[in-house]
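EI: anyone free to look at a 821-residue chain?
SC: sure, send it
EI:
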Amino acid sequence: MPDLLLELFSEEIPARMQAQAAEDLKRLVTGALSEQGLSFEGAASFATPRRLALHVAGLPIRQADVREEKKGPKVGAPEAALQGFLKSAGLASLDQAIVQKDAKKGDFYVAVIERAGRPALDVLADILPAVIKSFPWPKSMRWGRASARSDALRWVRPLHAILATFGPETEEPDVVPFSVEGIEAGQTTFGHRFLAPEPIKIRRFDDYLPALEKAKVVLDAERRRDIILHDARDLSFAQGLDLIEDKALLEEVAGLVEWPVVLLAEFDPQFLEIPPEVIRATIRANQKCFVLRDPVSGRLAHKFLLVANIEASDGGKAIVAGNARVVRARLSDAKFFWETDLQTRLEARLPKLETIVFHEKLGTQGERVQRLVLNARDLSPIVGADQAEAARAAELAKTDLVSEMVGEFPELQGLMGRYYAQKQGESSNVAAAIEEHYKPQGPNDLVPNAPVSIAVALADKLDSLVGFFAIDERPSGSKDPYALRRAALGVIALILENKLRLPLRRQLENVFVHLVRVSEAVPAFNLLTLRDDRDADAGELARLAQGGLWAWEFAREPAKSAHAVASRYLEARFAGEGEEREEDMASFAALHDIVKPYERLREIWLASGQAGAEDPDFIDMRQAFLAAREDLIGQLIAFFGDRLKVYLRERGARYDLIDAVFALPGQDDLLLIVARVEALASFLDTEEGKNLLAGYRRAANILKAEEKKDGVGAFNAPADPGLLREGQERALWERIRLMREEAETHLYKAEEEIGRKTFEGPTPFEKAMENLASLRAPVDAFFDHVTVNASEPELRVNRLQLLNELRQAVHRIADFSKIAG
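SC: here you go
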């Protein structure tokens, strides 16, 4: 059967675009072929720096003939309807139509339209130029004289030639007859730009591959990667060194060359004084080269590998020398950055963070650091970190962002902070936390396990989540510009991998309090900036606050703005700190009157809940603020629930079981949630679990049906033991009560012990599930021997109340209504 070969030959295609472009070419052409009724046996696409190629095998020589029946109007329909039918069907008269009999609806006309299939060559002549003209490059350009036209062809780089042949293996193929922007499709391609630039005539794919190989072009990107990796390993081994493999760099370099040649170069050993990550980043980012290391010491070697795109007549000596010169210059710059950065202590960089905007609605990086310090202090007791070390690490965590080195290599943020912290004598815990607080950044990334690192990593991620949710910058669909899904997964990994008991609701509220205190703009909560060019009179503020809650603040450091006073007050009020006294309230009210010029102070004051009850705005403002805060926390916990499903799904957990646990009230302790999900999964794998689930569903379905008649909540009252006539219903009633008492004991132990001790036998949740299993026999007996909808109304209601007690008892463990299957 005929094959199609298409090659689009251009100037250099950026390496990062090649794989997707090849996939898009295959998708668009094969999709169009299928739409035109042209099936095929297989398709493969390829990309090199100068060409996109597509091979489609096993195409038919022409489209199949098509027979279509078009239903028309009824016999005897108005003339206008009949004429419209004839025109649309392409018929000259009704004699060319057939009459379809229909006893119910009446006879009607049908046109039988037969269309002969078109030659595949003609179809391709329509498809291929359309695909080329609408190709979805992420970035493209116009060129030459035609570029003045808005409808001119856009391509990633100037397109020079099109090769397009179609035909069977045994015959001379045809050139697909089309042109794009004056470029006629033909049978010509070109080899390597320098080693074989002459035109090459191609018939079909079978001679295309060997012709390119002969012309020093390796078409398949995977084969280019294999050549580079194999030769790089061999050269490294010959030097007694190990190649530091880099999959992303290998992918990129394979997209930069058509004929890969691996060469060995070296740099001055003095540069090995620079941190190895800096050397690697410098050589990788600027020269796209691979670094080597000593297999014994594990340290970097002063040699590197480069990949040339040519077999040089001098064996590559000039290429090696040129690359070595550039690498030396780059490493000299890196050494200068390193030495310059070491002259400034990290804490001395803090003022510069005040000039860098983190987000226009969330303040500067300096304000963010203030929040991180507060959050890290809160988290320290929970994760077992030294509070002073956690606060110090949080304070310094972002300082390397304004260093020379990170300015040049942003991917080294955190890592350089660790090096600088070590050099200036910070503790190992603080230095490690500065690097590790960004982690984990993906499912395969390191999860910090040092307490100080955990505290700062959680502080950083929770601040981002609360802040961006508060300003309504939340993920939607495939868009997540602030990587909040990744941040939530990072929090989940930190909690679960380190077996932390961290109630999310309380911690999210604390993070929000610090956000309100530090940041000058959280418009979703009407808490806008209170800053002003005019300073409040410090003496007057101090006089107003004398004897009040804030007297010590004014004595220690006179306030310069109402923002400082109001935000500190808000923090104390919402965190439940400090003692409420009348003089405090009076001082704050008087402060409000003095600083009226400060924008939105009244709203802040009212939101604090300390305005007088007679104030007409007090109730609405207070309730609106608290409702908005509660809505924010609720949305964040739901977001964590969705991310937890993703996290656990990758580990084999069932979505429905997570839903069954999350449906219970107050579920915000991720470690407890996962422990309960695991225990529930094990229980439902047993016969007792499966049968109890069936019994629960039977009870729930009966209740659902009867509640439609009697109303929701009609059976919420406890069953009356005096109305339990049958032995089976009394046995179930007694078992429910006993099970409830025992389950509460196990659930309490779970709350107290999980994450805080090691269990040799079943965990408390597993014991609670065993307790639940004890319901199976009495439930089965009840349904086998007791008629729920008894003829006597009081018996019916009492038995339905008993089933409701069963449902409630089961829901204490998990909401079984959420379980699938």
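EI: The CA atoms of residues 111 and 138 lie 46 Å apart.
SC: 👍
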